[in-house]
Amino acid sequence: MSDSSAKLSHQYIASLIEYCSQVGCITGAGLLKQIELDAEAYPWLFQNYHGSLIVSYAKLGLLGHSRRCHKEGIKALHGGAASDMDWSLCVALLRSFRQKEAHAIFNNLVAAGQANSTMYGKMIKEYTLVQLPDVAFALFDDACRTGLRPDYFMLCELATASALFTDSLKSSACIQKVITCLDNWRIPAGIRFFICILKGYDLSHQNVLFDSLARKLVHRLQYTNNELNYVLMVNAARRGDLELAHILAPQVMESLSKFPRNEVVLRKIYQPEKRRELLNLERFPENNFTANVKLSLEIDASPRSLKPKSLLHSALDMVDKGYTPSFSMFSQLIRHIALCNNQNMAIEAFDRLSNAGVPYNVEILLFVLGLHLRSSSRARSVGIFEDIRSRLALSDAGKISLPGLTMQKYMEFLIERDDLVAAHQMLDFLRTLPCDYNRLPYSPLIRYYIARGMLDDAHKLITSVVQHDIPIDPVVIKMYCQVLLENAETADCGNFLRYIHRTDRIASVPYSVFEIFILHCVKKRRIADIEWVVEVLVNSPGETIGVWRAILKRLGKSSNIQDVANIIKMVIDLATDKGRAGMHLLSAAVDVPLALVVADNVLNVLGKHLGDRSTHLYSAAFSIFARLWVRYHTPAKTDGRHFHESKESLVLVLERHIYDAAALGIDRELLGISLRVLASDSRNMDLQEYIKILESVPNRNYSIGLLESICVGFARRGRTRDVDMILELMWNQTIMLDISVLNNLMSSINCMPIPRGLFMLNKSGINIGRADIKAAEFNQTAMVEDGDNERLYNRGFGEEKNREEEILLSGIVDSIEQPAEDVNDLYLTFYKENLARILSIWRRFEFYSTSPDIASYSILLGAYTKAKEYQQGEDIVSTIISMFGHELHISCQWIALRLKRGNVKGALHIFDALGNSDKCNELSRIDKRYMGLHYIERSAFHFFPFVKYYLGLGKHTLATRFLLAMHTLGFKGTTRMYYYILMHAAVLNNRQLVVDIMHQMVEFDVPINAQLTEIIRSYSELFKHKNTTSGSLD
Question: Which residue did the predictor score with more confidence, 284 or 314?
Answer without folding.
Answer: 314
